[in-house]
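Appendix B, record 7
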Amino acid sequence: MDYVKIGVIGIGNMGSSHVKFIGEMKNGKVTAVCDINPDAFKRIDEKVRANIACFTNSDEFFAKADVDLVIIAVPHYDHVDLAIKAMEAGKHIIVEKPISVHKLEAERLIAEAKKYPNLKKSLMFNQRIIPAHQKIKKLIDNGELGKITRVNWIITDWFRSQKYYDSGDWRASWRGEGGGVLINQCPHQLDLMQWFFGLPCKVRAAVKFGKYHDIEVEDEVNAYLEYADGKVGNFIASTGEMPGTNRLEITAEKGRLVYENGKIEFIRNEVETSTFCKTTKKTFGISDNWKCEIPAVDDRVSKHRQIIENVANAILKDTPLVAPMEEGIRGLELGNSMLLSGLLDKTIELPIDSKVFAAELEKLIAASRYVKKTVVQDADNSGFANSFH
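Structure tokens (predicted):
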């Protein structure tokens, strides 16, 4: 096999973009797409559309489409069921973020995935491809920073207007999306937090619902994290600040790393902090240090495309996956724990009880202002009726 035949389910903004990205690949080719709204196919270039099969029913798609790999780019609540259907049909899968809305559903998907060890299963965690993120991961894993003591990540450059939220009655609702900034905007950063630093053992969060917008879900989160090795973390996210900030700061024995505006800056201590503290004769002052700017050149190629290429190579050449699907439960659990802490107003210990969180979400869904089962057609995903499992 020279290339992988790829199908895309959900031809919204992301699904149609994936079709375009695949057209630029050498190891993959779009052969079929699926969306319950036939008008969605107009998003695909007419010349491309003429050479692919278009389906409006997922069962028919899985039964008849000539595909090896399926990309699932639909609203959050449909990720798990469609991923399971794809595996049952013998297809490799890429699931758009998040893996699911809550941990219990992610556990169900992962349990089903174990039945298909020969299939490649990935998440669209394209942020892992960004050279700066890979550089930070390497610096941490290689011990270049020394023991990490504190992490701060402020991600408030997610500004969204009220018009954005008013564009669909399902948007920013518990029944429609399953949450706000944590499930919709921050899955990539939550994944990177666990990828870089692991999962904390305790989370205490202040979560504000509709603080800046007329919505029922969270649009601001301030979370404090405690880790088993003694380090602490702060994770701050909002869709109500403008212009906002995206700054990752890592304090460690060997100095301080800051990642902001695409640049990595490391102020490196000449003497490690704990050693200097115990041995210096100074009453005031700190160790000598060096300011280092660490290069991480971006090749400007679409990171979504690179994830798809990685999965295609995994199928063709058994190349290791950049973002194995099973790892998606970690960042999801981190976000779920923050929301649960805010809802219950208490510190949450990890791992969380997935049934407890699912029960709390059920309560929110029951009281949700979004009550209709409508066909979803939005800028991020495409049309599939939302349901809670």
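Remarks on this record: The chain has 13 helices and 15 strands. The chain has two domains: 4-126+301-324, 128-298+330-366.
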